[in-house]
Design brief:
Distance between the termini of chain B: 47 Å
Largest sheet of chain B: none
Strand content of chain B: under 5%
Number of helices of chain A: 11
Shape of chain A: globular
Radius of gyration of chain A: 24 Å
Helix content of chain B: 55-70%
Largest interface: A-B, 41 and 33 residues
CATH class of the largest domain in chain A: Alpha Beta
Shape of chain B: globular
Number of domains of chain B: 1
Strand order of the largest sheet of chain A: 5-6-7-3-8-9
CATH architecture of the largest domain in chain A: 3-Layer(aba) Sandwich
Strand content of chain A: 25-35%
Order of helices and strands of chain A: EHHHEEHEEHHHEHEHEEHEEEEEEHEEE
CATH superfamily of the largest domain in chain A: P-loop containing nucleotide triphosphate hydrolases
Number of helices of chain B: 12
Structural class of chain A: alpha/beta
Helix content of chain A: 25-40%
Oligomer: heterodimer
Chain lengths: 432, 282
């Protein structure tokens, strides 16, 4: 058999610290001081570099990939599992040559295409037709190849009659369908699918998976990243488990998934923050855990839309804080906000809890039944004092699935648009 | 294994950390020439979208500048224009100068404004600044039409030299612009200071280039130093080729050519060296 991908001792070092913490505080004062001290810090860093090259480096870097080696034969479908930050996306980025490894080598046989770059290079002012050619060229297709597949792409995208309209006039659904259609017709030797980053509604994600299945059946090599274990089990023969940048297991999918789930690092409806995950500048606020709970109080990864859901954030205050509000953003996987809410939004609550003593706290809220639509949602958290300081923020702290069995309208097997699926009180009146 | 005929044998790519001076891999750029073409085409298609005057801006900008220069430097300051009517004298210089400035402005932002492409897919990053520089040629061609009209109006007939000299001087302008653009675009990925410094840079550069005045006012002992500015060579060359003013190619021109090539080659190496960090720092 021919080897499609051979990775040897692949490691990738990322800089953390200064660059990421820079805009943790949104305050003008901080931005100003930051701006004026920038030249000083720059001079200092130069001085540092000359007298001690090792020390600051140790502190400001993390290894997103650490000595990862594996071979993948042509025609294999490999699943990649691991929790957020385990290095899955970094691995795919190195394989698709977006970023260079720090150490190690990979040889890749054939063109790598990915379904996470849909719409890259699209320009809103250009028409659908023009964007197909542009996007195709960006993805590495030859003009003749695009010409040949053009009709097929338009059919697949279902935007036929708007093909000569600028894409800025498209609905977001049409835009995604067109973008996906181009990416899906690239026909690479190696297909990379990062479902974690995949945008789009449930139907769109199904389309992605369907396309992936087709590609695998044609005997091409596929790398598939997902948090969805049933999709991994269904679509891959073999999987690798990544943990903190290291490859800790490679086995037939069933065995790898069992290992992953039992090793306690799976996405379980709970996010725990260790000391190393909390930036020093969030003190005195210290997040401990964020949990999604069902009606019976069990921590779950999948909730039912017909039941209320409780979101619970556990944290520690090491010193008294005034004006505190602790809250969350709810996002769809398409990164659209559904809502933002804080525990002291209510004026009375703010009077009582705006100033909080040091101590161990829970902030809990319940999202009523018949709120969510089908799909995966992501929770961001934020603890701040309005216009004073932002203590802690994580845009993507935890994600969970929603199952819509029994929700309104499920007697029709169709996809309902929109992030919410309320049960409305319809009145039907016959007037004549 | 049975012998099979395949339409194309997949090529194997070796991905490894680059060390020291990165190889230029200009062949990569050639492989992606269609992308260069499409990026130029996109730039041009989009440039004057949702403007009322559209591509007329390519003419209005140099013509207005020429009128202002004519008023200040010819009308008020009475600057010598080597016996050529001042409007055509300055307009001839404004053409390559406009190309140069537009190239720097567009190319220095080319990586940052396409950051979604840079962070998501592989392609030779050189495509972006190269396409931005080349897309300026369309505006150049449009504004060149006005020059031809001016030449008819002032009854200026170029010598046969124009046929070989003009393309070569245009090439020199592009080489100079691309060299500087490569440096600026790569620096801009990490230090957005470039966006703020660039307006000053181009303003000072304009004064150091004989656009509004004639290079003949520079005393001979400073000539060589002055020609370290490649745009001085370009502008003088344009005037010589089109209007017959000045002395034509001399030693100073070779200094300009040498500097342009030096900036281009060093820019290519610098860009290639920084390229590997683009996706992480942009």
């Amino acid at each position: 058999m021919t080897i499609a991908i051979r990775a040897e001792h692949l490691s990738k070092k990322y800089r953390i610290g200064a660059a990421q913490q820079k805009f943790q505080y949104g305050m003008l004062r901080d931005v100003l001081t930051d701006t004026f001290t920038a030249p000083v810090r720059w001079a200092k860093s130069l001085a540092h570099r000359s007298d001690n090259p090792q020390l600051p480096a140790q502190k400001n870097f993390i290894w997103a990939l650490n000595d990862v080696s594996f071979d993948l034969e042509e025609g294999q479908v490999l699943g990649i599992v691991g929790r957020n930050g385990a290095g899955k996306s970094t691995l795919l980025k190195v394989l698709s040559r977006v970023t260079e490894p720090t150490i190690g080598t990979v040889s890749v046989r054939g063109r790598v295409g990915s379904l996470l770059e849909v719409g890259t290079g699209f320009h809103p002012e250009l028409t659908g037709r023009e964007n197909i050619f542009l996007n195709g060229a960006v993805l590495g297709m030859k003009r003749a190849e695009i010409d040949r597949k053009f009709d097929e792409i338009v059919d697949f995208s279902e935007v036929g009659q708007f093909i000569d309209t600028p894409v800025k006039r498209y609905s977001s659904g049409m835009y995604l369908r067109l973008a996906f259609a181009v990416a899906a017709h690239l026909e690479p030797e190696i297909l990379v699918v990062d479902e974690v980053l995949a945008v789009g509604d449930a139907e769109f994600q199904r389309k992605c998976l369907g396309k992936m299945g087709d590609v695998a059946q044609q005997g091409r090599t596929v790398l598939f990243v997902s948090h969805n274990m049933s999709a991994i089990l269904r679509l891959t023969h073999e999987a690798i488990v990544l943990k903190k940048g290291q490859l800790i297991k490679r086995a037939p999918t069933q065995e790898a998934v069992d290992f992953y789930l039992s090793s306690g690092q799976a996405e379980t409806g709970e996010r725990l923050w260790g000391a190393e995950d909390i930036p020093a500048m969030s003190a005195p606020f210290k997040p401990i855990a964020l949990r999604v709970k069902d009606r019976s109080g069990k921590v779950v990864d999948t909730v039912r839309s017909t039941e209320p859901v409780t979101i619970e954030w556990e944290y520690q205050l090491d010193a008294p804080v005034t004006g505190l509000r602790v809250g969350m953003y709810l996002n769809t996987m398409r990164a659209e906000y559904v809502f933002t809410a804080f525990d002291t939004d209510d004026a009375k609550q703010f009077e009582q809890f705006g100033a909080r003593q040091a101590g161990h706290y829970f902030s809990r809220c319940t999202i009523p039944a018949d709120f969510f639509n089908e799909g995966r949602y992501s929770l961001g958290v934020n603890a701040s004092s309005f216009a004073v300081r932002r203590y802690f923020m994580d845009d993507n702290a935890l994600s969970f699935n929603v199952d819509i069995t029994g929700a309104p309208g499920t007697q029709w097997p169709e996809v309902r648009q929109g992030p919410v699926r309320p049960r409305l009180n319809w009145e039907i009146e016959k007037v004549d | 294994m049975a012998f099979q005929t395949v339409s194309h044998e997949p090529t194997t790519v070796y991905i490894k950390p680059s060390k020291g001076l990165a190889a230029l891999h200009l062949r990569d750029l050639w492989t992606y020439r269609e992308l260069v073409f499409f990026m130029i085409w996109r730039d041009i298609k989009v440039r004057y979208k949702q403007t009322m005057l559209g591509a007329a801006w390519a003419i209005i900008q140099p013509v207005m500048t020429m009128l202002v220069f004519n008023f200040i430097f010819n009308g008020v300051a009475k600057v010598s224009s080597d016996g050529v009517p001042y409007p055509i004298f300055s307009y001839t210089a404004l053409l390559p100068w406009g190309l140069f400035v537009a190239a720097l402005n567009n190319a220095s932002r080319s990586l940052t404004s396409n950051s979604n492409m840079v962070t998501k897919i592989y392609f030779p990053r050189l495509v972006l600044p190269v396409a931005s520089v080349l897309s300026g040629l369309v505006d150049f061609a449009i504004s060149f039409v006005i020059l031809i009209l001016l030449m008819f109006y002032y009854k200026v007939t170029p010598s046969w030299n124009v046929l070989w000299a003009l393309p070569l001087f245009l090439l020199l302008a592009i080489v100079a612009a691309l060299g500087v653009a490569l440096w600026l675009s790569a620096i801009n990925v990490k230090y957005r200071d470039v966006n703020y410094a660039l307006p000053f840079l181009t303003q000072f550069w304009l004064f150091a280039t004989p656009v509004a005045y004639s290079a003949s006012v520079i005393s001979p002992k400073w000539r060589l130093l002055y020609s370290l500015n490649p745009m001085a060579g370009v502008v003088n060359g344009f005037r010589w080729a089109l209007l017959g003013s000045g002395s034509g190619p001399d030693a100073a021109l070779w200094v300009s050519v040498g500097i342009s090539l030096l900036v281009l080659v060093s820019g290519l190496f610098y860009f290639r060296g920084m390229e590997k960090t683009f996706a992480d720092t942009i």
